[in-house]
Amino acid sequence: MLATDTALGEARPALHHRVASILGGSVGNLIEWFDLHIYTAFSLYFAPQFFPGDSPNVQLLNAAGIFALGFLLRPLGSWIFGVYADRHGRRTALSLCVTLMCAGSLLIAVCPTYAQAGILAPAVLLLARMLQGLSLGGEYGASSVYLTEIADPRRRGFFSSFNYVTLISGQLLATLLLVVMRSLLSTDQIAAWGWRIPFAIGAACAVIGYALRRKIDETDQFKALKRRGLPERPTLRLLSNPRALVLVAGMTVGGTVAFFTYTVYMHRFLSNSAGLTRDQTTLVSCTTLFVFALLQPLLGALSDRIGRKPLLLAFGVLGTLGTVPLMTAMTRVHDAWSALALLMIALVIVSGYTSVNSVVKAELFPTSVRVLGVGLPYTLATSLFGGSAEYVGLWFKHLGYESLFFYYVSACIACTFITTLFLKEGGTASLDPERVAGSLTGGDDARDRFPIRDDHSQTNRGLIPWQTPNSSCSGTGRSAG
C-alpha cells in the first residue's frame, strides 16, 4: 500500500508537469487564432474609426489590406524566430512570440482613432498587425517542435495534437465572445468603444501565456545540441534538406486550404450559399469547432498506434474525393442540423491532417534546424494558399462558378495526398539525428539517404529522412548528449 501511495505521489507532479508543458507550448496558437478572428469579426465596427469619409466597402477593404499585410509577414517572422529558436532555444523563442502578440493586441486596444490622431491612427493599426504577423509566423514552428520534443516518443502524436486543440479553441472563443457582445451591447456601442474589449482580452491572454511559458523547461534535444555546439549558418544547413522542405510545403497546401475552407470561410459560406441565418451559422460553427477540437488528441493518440501516414492518406483520399459532393450538398441544405452533419463529416476528414501534421513535420528535420525547417515552408504555403482560400471562394462565387472552388479545394488536397505517398513514418524514432550509430557525424548529415518507398516492416517503420537503417534510436526521447 505504501509503495502504491509513493508511486501515485510521484506520478502527480509528473502529470502536472506534462500538462503545464502542453499548455505552455500550445497557448500561443489559441491567442493567435483568437486575435485573427476578432480582427476579421470586429473590423466591420472599427473600420470607420480609422478610415472615415470612404464608403463602407472601401473602409472594410482598407482594414482587410492591413490584415493581409500582417499575414504576408508571417514567413519573415517564421525565418527570424526559427533561426532564433534553433540558436537560443525553443522556450525563449516561444516567450518572445507571445510577448509580441501581447504588444500587437494591446496597441489595437488603445489605438487612437482617425478623429483623434489623424493619419497616425491607421499607422499604429498597421504597426500592430505587423508585430502580430511576425510573432504568429514564429509561433507554429516553435510550438510544433516544442510539443514534439517534450513528448515521450510513444506519445508524440498525442502531445503534438494539442497544437490544433488550442488553435481551434482560439476560433471558438472568439466566436463565442462575438455572440456575447452582440447580446449585451448595441451596434452603436460596439462601434464606439466595444470593439476594443476583445483586443484587450487578447493582450491579457498573452500575458498569461507569457507567464506559463516562463515556467516550462527547455527540451532535452536542444540542451544536447547546445552541449555539442551549435552549428553555423542555419539557413544554409536548412537548404541541405530540400526533400524535407518540399514534403512540408506539399503537405501544407491541401491541409491549410481544407482547414481554412471548413473553419474560417465556412461561416460566410453557410450564410451566402446555404442561406442559413446568422444565429444558425453561429450554432453550426461553434458546435462543429468544439467537436473538431476534441477529435485532435483522439486521432493523435491513434497515430501513435497505427502511424501518421495512414491518417494523412485517409485525409488525402477522402478529401480529394469527398470535397465536391460535401460542399455541393451544403449549398442545398435549408436547416442547421443538416449543415452541421455535413460540416462535421468534412472536419472529421480534415482531422486526419490537423491531428498529426505538426509531429510529422518535426520528425523530418534534425534538431539544429528543426524549428526553421517546420515553420518556414509551412508559413509560405499557408500565406499563399490558406490565407487566400476565402478570397478564392468568394471570387468564384462572384463569377457565378462557385462549384469550381470545390474542385480547387479538391486539387489542393490531392497535392497533399501525392506528397504523403513519398513520406516515411517517423514513429518512435530518435529526434536527435546529429548523433548517428552512437557517434557524431560530420557535415550536414540531414541530407536524404533513404529510398522513397514506404516500408511498413517492424524493423524500419521508425525511419525518417535523416536516418539510415543502422542509425541508433534509444526510444527514450532524450538525447545522449
- The strand line-up of the biggest sheet is 1-2
The radius of gyration is: 23 Å
> How much of the polypeptide forms β-strand, as a percent range?
under 5%
Please outline the major beta sheet: 2 strands, antiparallel
Model regions low in confidence, pLDDT < 50 over at least 5 residues: 1-12, 434-481
Distance separating the two termini: 38 Å
> Mean pLDDT across all residues, rounded?
82
Structure keywords:
two-stranded antiparallel ribbon, mainly alpha, disordered N terminus, 481 residues
Summarize this structure briefly.
With 481 residues, the protein is an all-alpha fold. It has 21 helices and 2 strands.
Structure description:
There is one protein chain. This protein has 481 residues and is mainly α. The protein has helices at 2-50, 56-72, 74-88, 90-110, 114-117, 120-150, 156-160, 162-184, 187-194, 196-215, 220-228, 234-239, 242-264, 266-272, 278-306, 309-330, 336-354, 357-362, 370-386, 389-399, 402-421; strands at 435-436, 439-440. Strands 1-2 form a two-stranded antiparallel ribbon. α3 (74-88) runs antiparallel to α19 (370-386) and α8 (162-184) runs antiparallel to α15 (278-306). The longest helix has 49 residues, at 2-50. The radius of gyration is 23 Å and the shape is globular. It starts with a helix and ends in a 41-residue tail after the last strand. The model is unreliable at 1-12 and 434-481 (pLDDT under 50).
